[in-house]
């Protein structure tokens, strides 16, 4: 199995994770938004990779400006998840 197939197949468990997490209603809202932004990262990375290959004849990782632009959404996702859980932790500590 090549890496592209594995990448595509990994989307389904992640969508299941999001579905259950959303339905549970127990995830901090900001963290949940961060998990959804990760889908945005994937949606941007795929066309960016195709553009890099067609326009520059290189892999996305070798076109710095394009790779960095796509990776911004991964960074944003991570920040939102961390801030969401941090906020929930602080709220929980204040309740005690």
UniProtKB/TrEMBL annotation:
Pfam families from the UniProt entry: DUF3593 (PF12159)
Keyword Membrane listed: yes
Transmembrane segments: 6-23, 30-52, 72-90
Protein keywords: Membrane, Transmembrane, Transmembrane helix
Domain of life where this protein originates: Bacteria
Keyword Membrane included in the entry's annotation: yes
Name under which the protein is recorded: DUF3593 domain-containing protein
Organism: Lusitaniella coriacea LEGE 07157
């Amino acid at each position: 199995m090549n890496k592209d197939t594995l990448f595509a197949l990994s989307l389904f468990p992640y969508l299941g994770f999001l579905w259950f997490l959303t339905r549970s209603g127990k995830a901090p809202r900001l963290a949940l938004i961060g998990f959804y932004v990760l889908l945005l990262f994937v949606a941007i990375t795929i066309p960016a990779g195709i553009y890099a290959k067609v326009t520059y004849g290189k892999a996305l990782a070798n076109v710095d400006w394009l790779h960095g632009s796509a990776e911004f959404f991964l960074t944003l996702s991570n920040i939102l998840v961390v801030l969401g859980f941090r906020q929930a932790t602080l709220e929980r500590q204040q309740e005690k």
